[in-house]
Amino acid sequence: MKILVASHTYIVDLNCEKLRTLANLEPNIQVTVVVPQRWIPGGVQNKIIETQFRDEGNFRVVPINNFSQNHQGLLTFGTDLISLLQEFKPQIIQVEQGSRGLAHSQMIILNKILGLKAKNIFFTWWNIPYKLKFPVSLLENYNLKYSHGIISGNQDGAEILRQQGYTGSIKVIPQLGVDETLFKPQYQPELSQKLGIKPEDFVVGFVGRFVPEKGILTLLKSLDLIPEKQWKLLLLGRGNLQSEIIKWAADKRFQERLILVESVPHNQVYQYINLMNTLVLPSETTYNLKNLTSVGWKEQFGHVLIEAMACKIPVIGSDSGEIPYVIGDAGLIFPEGDAGALANCLVKLIDHPEVAQKFAEMGYQRAIAKYTNKALAKEQLDFYQQLVMVNQE
């Protein structure tokens, strides 16, 4: 099977692991990844990424001249895409820029003009209801009409696409898996000593952006409710709430309990996760159901959860977005924004080490079974094979 995937996501080699694994599942699979030649992440003008061609046999990354260098929806590719499609002749074309991506429309049109007869698929993370105005609504309607299948990164996204009128095949698969060779249980005695963590400390961990929608203020309030417990708070990340966090620690005289670490390279995050007794993801939904044209947010997945689970660290998450589906019964869920409920979850793990151990083991088994790159690659291949078989029956 010849599979072509197009997205700016794969300019980062670490993000290619699932597709690299997919290419090696069976001898007859070839995966070509199309990425923009130049990309400006976050629109930061002084940080331009120039992508490089990589050929690993049955897996390759091909930079293509691109229009729009910092907008996912407006990303389209130059004429060198045509020669690549003619040479590769894919059976699957997957564009990972959402339901309104111009690149997906471009691939649909070229697929028709070149007579490739490939299956058109797009991937989306979008998981909050919306209403579109013309001409964007026309663009999405076109993409939905000519998509043979859709991969949604979450359950809510799949339901929203149904509400938008899509009747074809939808598969829920996250975009990126967890590297279980890196994220695994590993003692970190030197780092623990460096950060002043003692064996008797119960380390409550958070990894992510210090912003209101990530629920970090609710986490602080929950710890206010259990000052008598032997906890320490390990925060890994950065954001505009950092000064407020430091002020909270000073006001509550929790300075010795707070360990704040600026963001570190992703391949070092596992070291800090392995210091935790629990990882908390207290995300909070911000969109307004009464105004579907406004900007809002809901947790799309929570990748740090599967990283912690793979490290055998018990997880606690709010019920925002995809979090309950990711954790399943392998951790604790609390109503978003409810500091008291979160405090109860923390106390449960602090006071009952056997419960924490049970969730640690269950989370590990769930991560290995469902969320490694190999597990996700197999799911994706099964979906492709089902779509291809439709034409052959």
State the main characteristics.
single chain, 393 residues, alpha/beta, Rossmann fold, 2 domains, eight-stranded mixed β-sheet, six-stranded parallel β-sheet, elongated
Question: How would the blueprint of this fold be written?
Answer:
Elements: E1 2-6, H1 17-23, E2 30-36, E3 38-39, E4 49-50, E5 54-55, E6 59-64, E7 66-67, E8 76-77, H2 80-88, E9 92-95, H3 102-113, E10 119-124, H4 136-145, E11 149-152, H5 155-163, E12 169-172, H6 189-194, E13 202-209, H7 216-224, E14 231-238, H8 242-251, E15 258-261, H9 269-273, E16 278-281, H10 303-310, E17 315-318, H11 323-327, E18 332-334, H12 339-351, H13 353-370, H14 373-392
Parallel strand pairs: 1-2, 1-9, 2-6, 9-10, 10-11, 11-12, 13-14, 13-16, 14-15, 16-17, 17-18
Antiparallel strand pairs: 3-4, 5-6, 7-8
Helix pairs in contact: 1-14, 7-12, 10-13, 12-13
Write a brief caption for the model.
The protein is of the alpha/beta class. The chain has helices at residues 17-23, 80-88, 102-113, 136-145, 155-163, 189-194, 216-224, 242-251, 269-273, 303-310, 323-327, 339-351, 353-370, 373-392; strands at 2-6, 30-36, 38-39, 49-50, 54-55, 59-64, 66-67, 76-77, 92-95, 119-124, 149-152, 169-172, 202-209, 231-238, 258-261, 278-281, 315-318, 332-334.
